[in-house]
Model the fold of this input.
Amino acid sequence: MQVDKEHVKLGIWGPTSGGKTTFLAALKIATFANTYGANWAITSLDDPSEAYLNEISGFLMDQEFPEGTTSQTGVLRYRLTAAPPSDWLSNIGRNIFKVFGLSGEAAVNIELNIVDYPGSAFENSRLQDSRYENLPEALAKCDALVFSFDPIRELDGKRENFRFFDNIAERIRRQTFTDNPDQLQLGQFLAVCITKFDDSRILERLEQAGIFHLPDSIEEDRPNPTPEQAKFVFDYLAHKFLKNAIETNFHEDRTEYFLSSSIGFYVAPGQNFNPDDCSNLEEGKIRGEVSPINVLEPLMWLESKVRQLRIKESR
Done:
């Protein structure tokens, strides 16, 4: 793993229509939510990154889905910052941030270089395309990776998520192990984002299996699942080939799971969350206000882990 001392280089991959573009679009909206009481902001570090983020997030703000990535967008460069207000420095706030290895006493500053490709580029046949021939090398040079796991594809028992994962993991291994033949696993940190968590088909399957339940009372907050719950859900939904591939390629202590939703759950204006009327999708369109779930958190976790490793290696 190549370590750049000034910023984290983050790669995202996953199947076509798996939610990667919508995830990035939700990132800007998530910064408006004062996550953990902090005042978050995302700043584009060059004009192409700014234009791309504004375009795709604009769709979500208008309650429409952005079009998926159709070509390599290049390296998208952003800085995430969090400046906690003076009345936020409570023990609760500090402890929450410490979960991610971040300080509750100082502003958070996360610089991200995101390598984004269309989902079709991760198909094995497309890797021969000259437009995508550098994709494995680009991902191999990332400090951290996000795999966008599409649970809808698992409902019919097919292995599409595994195919998209393994096609790239194999190429990254080849790229990495050529330089380090004694290395057994990849050195990157990996966040597995189980996207479309809000989809009624997924929730119904999980509730029927007793794996995950929505809050029983409308007085309760919207669901905000933990990594432990996410891993439980992943183990239930994912094909065994994919689970084995992740365990084979990535260190267990460098892998985390997140139940994510780029659009969140529906809450009627002026009302509380109602588990009997919470789908934010209606005939394929976004029904209400977009309220992302676990979009910032994977990036916070990845950045903190990379930074902790750099501190350890510098001693």
Remarks:
- The radius of gyration is 19 Å.
- The longest helix spans residues 160-179.
- The mean pLDDT is 79.
